[in-house]
Amino acid sequence: MESFENENKYLRAKRRVDKIKKFYTSLTFYVIFIFFLATLNYYVNELRNPWFLWAAFGWGIGLFFQAMKAFDWFSYFGKDWEERKLKKFMEEEERNNRNF
Question: Which chain regions cross the lipid bilayer (predicted)?
């Protein structure tokens, strides 16, 4: 039973590391691409109309939510919450079955 718990912990940790790795990859592409767009914007109209900020803002929102998920900033409805609720309901069901 203990090895099953350890394997479970390992798999959860691996999933979390994968999420963080994907976030940093996305962040790297974000910085590179926004820098490219800002450079292009500068050469086209010398930043008189900074249209690259729209792309930075839009993509930044998605990146923010990805960071929230990767670093568990808002974990109330996350996977751990779901597992806790499942355990709670299973225990309640077990108690109800014992009473009958």
Answer: 23-45, 51-71
